[in-house]
Amino acid sequence: MTEINTNRKYKSSVFTLLFGEKNNLLELYNAIENTNYGTKKITIPNPEFIVLYNGDEECPDKQVMKLSDMFSEPLPESLANLELVVNVYNINKGRNEEFAIRSEKLKGYEIFIYLVKEYVKSMDRDSAIKRAIGDCIRQDVLKDFLKEHGSEVHNMLLSGWNWDDAKRVWQREAREDRDEEILDLIDKGYTSADIKNHLSKQTRPATV
């Protein structure tokens, strides 16, 4: 079994490094919204929350996620005082291709990440990242960006806190913690009904 190595100190990513630059971010926004905004101050549209997904798990091209879907109990519409709607777009290579057509930077990012994922299937992660960086530079894919930030990109992908890995670690740790708690309750003489009632109380949101 491959051990998941993570580094919680990294607070950035290749994506945020690339699109942290103002013009690149504007290009990305225009690609997703199919608009043509420039840097001149103008009236802006209503705020929209967007998540761009490029993980390994299957994900539709677009899905809408609501905060209320995670509430422990459904609330009447009149009582739902807090709501957040997030549009999730799949930006893996070959998905939502119109975005990549509109944004050369996003297209390059998709190609680069795709190459890393493909190369890591047949070589160690360090070699896969280096090969992807080199191939992209030679093929003029994010060439200037990778020539300037190649070392940072390499370190981020090699040691960064990957969301998919993180989720698997959290799920594993949660299961382990819950298993230990159940065993402790059994040792204390709790019945199965008592244990179920105890655990259900822990999942209810706190009142503030």
What this model shows, in words?
By secondary structure, the protein is mostly helical. The protein folds into 2 domains: 14-161, no CATH class; 167-202. Helix content is 51%, strand content 8%. It has helices at 14-19, 22-33, 97-102, 104-119, 125-138, 143-159, 163-187, 192-202, and strands at 49-53, 62-66, 85-90. Strands 1-3-2 form a 3-stranded mixed beta sheet, with no helix packed on it. The longest helix is centred in the last third of the chain and has 25 residues, at 163-187. The protein is flat and about 65 Å long. Mean pLDDT is 77; it is low at 1-12 and 203-208.
User: β content, as a range?
Assistant: 5-15%
What are the segments in which pLDDT stays under 50 over at least 5 consecutive residues? Answer: 1-12, 203-208
Which strand order does the major sheet show? 1-3-2
Structural class: mainly alpha
Total count of strands: 3
Largest sheet: 3 strands, mixed
Morphology: flat
Order of helices and strands: HHEEEHHHHHH
